[in-house]
Amino acid sequence: MRITQGCFSFLPDLSDAQITAQVHYCLRQGWAVAIEYTDDPHPRNTYWNMSGLPMFDLQDPAGVISELNACRRANPGTYIRINAFDPTQGWETVRMSFIVQRPDSEPGFRLVRQETRGRSLHYTMESYAVARHPEGTRYRA
Amino acid sequence: MNAPEKARIDTIDLGAEFRDAGIAEVLEALEHDLVGLAPVKRRVREIAALLLVDRVRQRLGLSTQAPSLHMSFTGNPGTGKTTVALRMAEILHRLGYSRRGHVVAVTRDDLVGQYIGHTAPKTKEVLKRAMGGVLFIDEAYYLYRPENERDYGQEAIEILLQVMENQRDDLVVILAGYADRMEHFFASNPGMKSRIAHHVDFPDYHDGELGDIAERMLAQWNYRFDPAARLAFAEYITLRRQRPHFANARSIRNALDRMRLRQALRLFEQGNPLDADALITLTEADVRASRQFASPLPATESDDVRDLDFDPERDTDRIDY
C-alpha cells in the first residue's frame, strides 16, 4: 500500500530534477529546508529522524540535493522527506513537506480491533513492516 | 533547446553572443569603476572570452571539457581583490556558469571548527550556502597551519578540495591573500594549486591611481578637495606609502575618513554660518594636519606611530596563535 503523506504523494515519485525544482521553489520563498528519514511511517509518527541540521541561508538547491544523496546512501530502504520551514512571523511552521524516497515494497497497515468493556471496539492501525522487524531492518529486502 | 538545429549552423557571430550574454556592461563597469589594475582587467577579459567561446563551442556541438573556474587572487591589502571577486561572480552568472551569482565571503573562522568533529559540518554548511555562486575565501593561507599538526584547517582543506573537484558546476572557489604567503600555501598544498586554473595577481596602485581613487571616493560621499588640498594629498600619498602597514586603497579611505573628521571639527569650532560649499570642501589644512607631514621619516618614529595616528587597518594583520 502506497503511503500518501505530504505534498505530491498521490503523484508518481518525483524525479531528481523535479525535487530540485521544488527545493528551488522553497528557497525562493525564503524557507529553510530540512531532510528527515524514518522506517516507521505511521501517520501519527510526526517526528522523523533528522538527517543533519536544517539548512538556512541557502541560495541554490545543489546543497540540499547533495545532502539528500548522502542521506539516501546512509539510509537505503527508508522513507525520506524534505520539509520546508517558513520562519516568517505568524507562520513559523513547516509550509511544505514531501516524500523523496520510499522503500521498494510497502506492505501497508493492518486495522487492529481491540474489544473493550461492553463489547465496544477500539480501532487502531499497525504497520506490517514495523511489527515484523526491529528498527533499522524493517524494509531491507 | 533546439540544439540539433543550432548544430548545423557553421558560423557564429561572437559579437552578438557577447551582447546577448550581457557581460559587455559588466566588463565596461569593471573598466570604468576600477582605477588601474590593468593586468587584472586583462585576465578577467580573457576568462570571460574563454567562457564565451566555450559556450559557443558547446552550441556547435564541439565537446569541451567543463572549464575549471576556481581562481586565486593574490595581492597586497587594499588592491581590490574582493571588489573584483564580486564582478567576477556577476560575469560568471551572466555567462551561465554560476546559477545564482552570489558571493559568500568567508575566512578561516567560518570554515574551521574549534574541536574534533566541528570542522566538517561547519565547512559543509558554508559550502552549501555558497552553492550556485562564488565562495570567496579571504586570507586562505590561514587554513593551513603547519606549526600545529593537530590543527583542524587541514580537514577543511580536504573537504574543500573534494567539493572543488566533484561539484565544479555548483560552485566556484576564489582564494585570496598576500602573494608570498599564498605561494607558500600552494607549495604545501599541491592539490589545491592544481585545482585552481586562474592565478590573478593584483599589482599595487601607483601614486597617481591612488589620487584618482581618493577623488572618486570623495565624489561618492559628496566631498571634494580644493586645489591646494589636492596637491597636499598627492604629497600625503607619497609619504604614507613609506610607512608600515600601507594598505593601498584602504589606507586612502581611512585617511579620507580622518580628514573628514578634521574638517568637521574645524567647521564646528569656526562657529560662523556655513554654506554648502564649506561643507563639501576639504582644505589643505585638513590634509596637512595629518601626522605624516609632521614626521616624514618613517624609521625614526615607527614606535609611537600607533598612539598618534588612529588607523583601524593597522591591526588587521592577524596574530598567529
TrEMBL record, chain A:
SUPFAM superfamilies in the cross-refs: RuBisCO, small subunit
GO BP: reductive pentose-phosphate cycle
Alphabetical keyword list: Calvin cycle, Carbon dioxide fixation
Domain Ribulose bisphosphate carboxylase small subunit intervals: 4-103
Molecular functions per Gene Ontology: ribulose-bisphosphate carboxylase activity
Gene3D superfamilies: Ribulose bisphosphate carboxylase, small subunit (3.30.190.10)
InterPro entries: RuBisCO_ssu, RuBisCO_ssu_dom, RuBisCO_ssu_sf
Pfam families documented for this protein: RuBisCO_small (PF00101)
Assembly and binders: Heterohexadecamer of 8 large and 8 small subunits.
Miscellaneous: The basic functional RuBisCO is composed of a large chain homodimer in a 'head-to-tail' conformation. In form I RuBisCO this homodimer is arranged in a barrel-like tetramer with the small subunits forming a tetrameric 'cap' on each end of the 'barrel'.
Purpose of the protein: RuBisCO catalyzes two reactions: the carboxylation of D-ribulose 1,5-bisphosphate, the primary event in carbon dioxide fixation, as well as the oxidative fragmentation of the pentose substrate. Both reactions occur simultaneously and in competition at the same active site. Although the small subunit is not catalytic it is essential for maximal activity.
Entry's family note: Belongs to the RuBisCO small chain family.
Record protein name field: Ribulose bisphosphate carboxylase small subunit
TrEMBL record, chain B:
UniProt region (Disordered), positions on chain: 293-321
Family annotation (InterPro entries): AAA+_ATPase (IPR003593), AAA_lid_6 (IPR041627), ATPase_AAA_core (IPR003959), CbxX/CfqX_mono (IPR000470), CbxX/CfxQ (IPR000641), CbxX/CfxQ_RuBisCO_ESX (IPR050773), P-loop_NTPase (IPR027417)
Compositional bias segments (type: Basic and acidic residues): 303-321
SMART domains (UniProt xref): AAA
Positions of the AAA+ ATPase domain: 67-206
UniProt-listed PANTHER family: AAA-TYPE ATPASE FAMILY PROTEIN / ANKYRIN REPEAT FAMILY PROTEIN, AAA-TYPE ATPASE FAMILY PROTEIN _ ANKYRIN REPEAT FAMILY PROTEIN
Annotated family: Belongs to the CbxX/CfxQ family.
Function: Seems to be necessary for the expression of RuBisCO.
Protein name: CbbX protein
Native source organism of the sequence: Parazoarcus communis SWub3 = DSM 12120
